[in-house]
Design a protein that fits this description.
The complex is a heterodimer. Chain A has a single domain (10-485), classed as Up-down Bundle (Cytochrome C Oxidase, Chain A). The radius of gyration of chain A is 22 Å and the shape is globular. Chain A contains 18 helices and no strands. Chain A is mainly α. Helix content of chain A is 75%, strand content 0%. Chain A has helices spanning 9-22, 24-53, 66-98, 105-130, 144-163, 172-197, 202-237, 244-257, 274-285, 287-302, 305-310, 312-335, 337-343, 347-377, 384-417, 423-428, 430-459, 477-485. Chain B has a single domain (33-172, 202-238), classed as Cytochrome Bc1 Complex, Chain D, domain 2 (Orthogonal Bundle). In chain B, the strands form 2 sheets. A two-stranded antiparallel ribbon of chain B has the order 1-2. Classes of the chains: A mainly alpha, B mainly alpha. The interface between A and B is large, with 85 and 76 residues.
Chain lengths: 502, 242
């Protein structure tokens, strides 16, 4: 961070703007194409959710049958939006925190295109009927090797940057970035190898797949979002992190607990019995890192409540941190044994995934995008109204999808457990919740189409040329500008350390 | 905390769990010991040999690529984990005419021959562990089980007993063919334009074959039958089936 640097403020600002400039193309590519994928994922989500309550909707075409649209929706959400938003975040954070300009932007950009191309072919493959039928790994088998290789190319430079960083303090975010960079290929490669590569017990393949879905959320999206949240909250408020011990507790408890989680999705299956129940216990314990990190971050943000309201970045990030706490609560609620038997095969599994990926990770990622994009494009966001629309529609949408699906899932589970009643009773219970989910996805699509357009305009460098950031409050902007962004907050469009544009 | 300690910590915390829940169970489960019947408990000797018939592998691929697992499970959980065993026709049949109560929980041999056990994600539709048995004994009672499933795939809501089914229609698995000579034997009794009939595609045939093969209620050795306490006594005389 800037305090650790012995350079003059001018040289410091110059270095930051050089880092931003060196990463402009890859990071903007990850964010914009991620946002476009998000819009695609939401559109597919509306179609698939509508089919749950209106099975006749768009049913004449094999490409749009529920069993293909639903996996395509989740794969687009996870690999198209989630992973790409995460890559942009990780690459930018590591460069800034290690104070290194990126010397391989072209290579990262190329790898990003390879990733994007593989995901596109993969999602088309799912819709065309080439799905492997393995949840979250449905993309045809050709896709995962290029995806893994492009991840390695994207992440290796961040590792190098960390290695050659100037000696000094390592910020908390860097722990999480490194962890995400190490865990992702490990989880991704071992799950794909075990399921697609080696032949083994079909049941263990299913169990490893359940572990993979959980590990992707808790060992990749979670650390990435936490890294971004630690950075953004302390940076924008200009305050030090509330407690170092809580940071340590939050990090190491996640590292120790999360790899055991996941197999509770197979509770009752003929696999060694400790696997699902250990998974359930570990998932319940995820509440510990969630609370440690959530409290630490909220305590840090609470010192500057006005900034949280006015800064688009902080508003999204703090909402995401609240999403993390809700996710932690849902981990406990859905996996305690009396509820696990009811939540195991219901809408609540989906609701939980949406909560973790959208309600927590994506909100922090939006915060990151609102912070980073003005710095790398050297333009300010065009409209605070668009940002507000994005924020409120997203909050309403995700609260509805996640809570309705989780609660509706448990209702559905109650129906399933009532074995003396006819099956139709249980099947009918999903109906109202599915209707609510469809409506909420429409809200989310609406909000994200505006977000994508806003971002695309920024990408075309049509943002405002100004040194005053776009804020959401009605206060006097010049004052807020100084109080909000601290010594480093100026995006250097006109400041002393400003490098020539282009 | 030095970088070396940090990297070691990350590798150790993740690696230990990874070995314990992923790698070691994967290789241990690769070959499962066969289980034998014993004269005392089962009334017969020999190794338990689960049999499946039909084009299971191809059918499972159609099942997978059309995402049936998004709404259907294939898992009968033990009573401590769920209530499927209580339903009269999910885990087997409560009153099979020849064999009595055939209900039992899923076992490790039930998924043999498949690449990936389709445990499933959600139960918007019923569990399919014994759908083959159910169609033959109940839905298409006395009739053509294969035709019943074909009709169900073609239009699930056409069946007057299932107006509320939310299963998508799989009309795309069927082909409209012009009739040039005899009407094909497998033509569905549904409306089609003059001079044509609707016949199942190879995919539909494989899928139906696979679904009819799902009869996971054969008698298992008592040593691996954890059903309710009353069960063994009832199941015993019914055990030896051709």
């Amino acid at each position: 961070m800037s305090q650790a640097s012995s350079q003059s403020p001018e040289a410091d600002a110059l270095l930051r703007s050089e880092i931003d400039r060196s990463l402009r193309h890859p990071v903007m590519f990850f964010f914009t194409s991620g946002a476009a994928w998000l819009a695609v994922a939401l559109l597919l989500g509306i179609i698939s959710s509508a089919k749950v309550h209106a099975p006749g909707f768009l049913d004449s075409c094999s490409w749009l049958t529920y069993g293909r649209v639903q996996p395509a929706h989740l794969n687009a959400l996870i690999y198209g939006w989630g992973c790409q938003a995460a890559f942009g975040t990780l690459v930018w954070l590591m460069a800034r925190l290690s104070r290194q300009t990126c010397r391989a932007a072209g290579l990262i950009l190329t790898a990003g295109h390879v990733w994007n191309f593989s995901v596109t072919l993969g999602v088309i493959g799912i819709l065309a009927g080439g799905s492997t039928g393995v949840p979250w790994m449905e993309m045809p088998v050709f896709a995962w090797v290029p995806m893994l290789l492009s991840f390695v190319v994207i992440s290796i430079w961040s590792m190098v940057q960390f290695k050659v960083r100037p000696a000094g303090h390592v910020f908390i975010s860097q722990w999480y970035v490194l962890a995400a960079l190490i865990w992702f290929p490990w989880v991704f490669a071992s799950a794909h190898l075990m399921v697609h590569g080696f032949s083994g017990s079909p049941l263990m393949a299913a169990a490893i797949n359940a572990w993979y879905r959980s590990a992707l959320v808790f060992l990749f999206f979670t650390p990435t979002a936490i890294a971004a949240a630690y950075y953004l909250i302390s940076k924008v408020t200009g305050r030090p992190i509330y407690s170092y011990s809580l940071s340590l507790l939050g990090f190491w408890s996640l590292a120790i607990i999360a790899p055991w989680a996941g197999m509770q999705k197979l509770a009752g299956a003929p696999i060694p019995n400790f696997l699902p129940y250990l998974g359930a216990a570990a998932t319940i314990l995820i509440a510990i890192p969630a609370i440690a990190v959530g409290v630490n971050l909220l305590k840090t943000a609470a010192g500057a409540p006005e900034t949280v309201v006015n800064s688009p970045t902080l508003r999204f990030t703090v909402a995401g941190v609240i999403g993390l706490l809700v996710t932690g609560a849902a981990c406990v609620f859905l996996n305690v044994p009396p509820i696990l038997r009811m939540s195991q095969f219901t809408l609540s599994g989906y609701g939980f995934d949406v909560l973790a990926i959208y309600g927590f990770f994506s909100f922090v990622a939006f915060g990151m995008i609102y912070f980073v994009v003005p710095r790398i494009t050297r333009r300010e966001w065009l409209s605070s109204r668009l940002i507000k629309v994005h924020f409120f529609l997203s909050v309403y949408g995700v609260v509805t999808v996640a809570l309705v699906a989780i609660f509706g899932g448990v209702m559905q589970g109650l129906g399933q457990e009532a074995f003396a009643q006819p099956w139709e009773d249980a099947a009918m219970r999903a109906y109202p919740y599915a209707v609510a989910t469809t409506i909420a996805w429409i809200f989310l699509l609406f909000s994200n189409v505006f977000f994508f357009l806003h971002l695309a305009l920024m990408w075309l460098r049509l943002g405002r040329r100004s040194s005053h950031p776009t804020l959401l409050g009605h206060g006097h902007h010049a004052n807020l500008h100084d109080s909000i962004h601290g010594p480093e907050g100026d995006i250097d469009n006109a400041g002393p350390g400003s490098a020539p544009a282009h | 905390m030095s970088f070396r300690q940090f990297a070691f910590g990350l590798t150790a915390t993740f690696g230990f769990a990874w070995l314990a829940v992923v790698i070691v169970p994967f290789f241990m489960m690769r070959s499962v010991e066969p289980v034998a019947f014993t004269e005392a408990a089962d009334g017969k000797e020999g190794i338990y040999h689960p049999k499946t018939t039909g084009r299971v592998t191809n059918g499972a691929e159609v099942y997978a690529s059309n995402g049936c697992y998004n709404c259907h499970t294939q898992l009968i959980r033990p009573t401590y984990a769920g209530n499927e065993l209580g339903r009269p026709d999910w885990a087997g049949l409560k009153m099979d005419e020849e064999r009595g109560d055939t209900r039992r929980e899923s076992n490790v041999f039930d998924y043999q021959g498949e690449k990936f056990a389709q445990i499933g994600l959600n139960r918007l539709g019923p569990d399919l562990s014994n759908v083959g048995r159910r169609v033959e004994a109940e839905y298409a009672k006395g009739g053509d089980a294969k035709l019943w499933l074909m009709m169900h795939l073609y239009d699930p809501r056409a069946n007057p007993q299932r107006p509320t089914s939310t299963c998508p229609s799989h009309r795309f698995l069927f082909e409209e063919k012009e009739v040039l000579g005899q009407v094909p034997q497998d033509a569905l009794p549904v409306e089609s334009p003059e001079g044509t009939v609707v016949i199942p595609s190879p995919d539909a045939n494989e899928l139906v074959d696979y679904l009819l093969s799902l009869k996971r209620d054969d008698a298992v050795p008592a040593s691996m039958n954890y059903g309710p306490a009353t069960k063994p006594a009832e199941a015993k005389p019914a055990a030896p089936q051709g």
